[in-house]
Design brief:
Blueprint lengths: L12 E4 L5 E5 L1 H9 L3 E13 L2 E11 L14 H7 L17 E4 L14 E4 L1 H7 L4 H4 L16 H4 L7 H8 L2
Parallel strand pairs: 1-4
Antiparallel strand pairs: 1-2, 3-4, 5-6
Bound molecules: zinc ion.
Length: 178
């Protein structure tokens, strides 16, 4: 086990709901806000110290909300930007990396067949693949998805590995349960 843990001002913190459900990774500013309002239990910490109020605490790696919040995975929470980040700008059919302006959003199960406009039914696609797939399911079009679309909080590591951020060993357990 490596004890090497370089100082890094942008260490992230995994935010859990009161029932340990994974919500998202948060950065310093949001963490401080929640800590200041006394809304968090600290579950796991980094080695790094953090001056806090009149003392020093260890920088939190996992925090849990003292009060349960209702997660709302409706259409309203869907975001094209987060979808693109989740899929790493990559067409989920042919694998090509796309510049932002060439990205289209494909409904895996077409809306005409009852598919929803949601994280679990939308993927990044290039124009040619999107055209080829047309109003068909991947099976009907004879195409295969590189990754099954998930809600971003279920694959929260996407927001971490992109930036080569530090990975806290405790995160694996929380994320694999979600
Ligand atoms: Zn493609």
């Amino acid at each position: 086990m490596s004890m090497r843990e370089p100082r890094c001002p942008v260490k992230k913190t995994l935010l859990l709901n009161n029932n340990y459900e994974v919500l998202q990774f948060i950065v310093e500013r949001k963490l401080f806000k929640l800590l200041y309002k006394d809304k968090l239990w600290i579950e796991e910490t980094w080695q790094q110290d953090l001056p806090w109020l009149h003392g020093i605490i260890k920088y939190p790696a996992v925090v849990r909300l003292k009060n349960m919040i209702k997660r709302n995975f409706t259409v309203a929470t869907f975001s094209r930007g987060i979808l693109i980040k989740r899929d790493k700008n990559q067409c989920q059919y042919c694998g090509i990396k796309l510049p932002y302006y060439q990205i289209t959003v494909d409904h895996v199960i077409p809306k005409s067949q009852g598919g929803t406009h949601s994280f679990t039914n939308c993927v990044v696609a290039c124009h040619p693949c999107n055209n080829r797939k047309d109003n068909k399911t991947p099976e009907q079009a004879g195409m295969k998805l590189l990754n099954l679309p998930t809600h971003p909080s279920f694959s929260a590591h996407h927001s971490i590995t992109d930036n080569q951020d530090y990975w806290h060993p405790s995160w694996d357990g929380f994320l694999s349960n979600s």
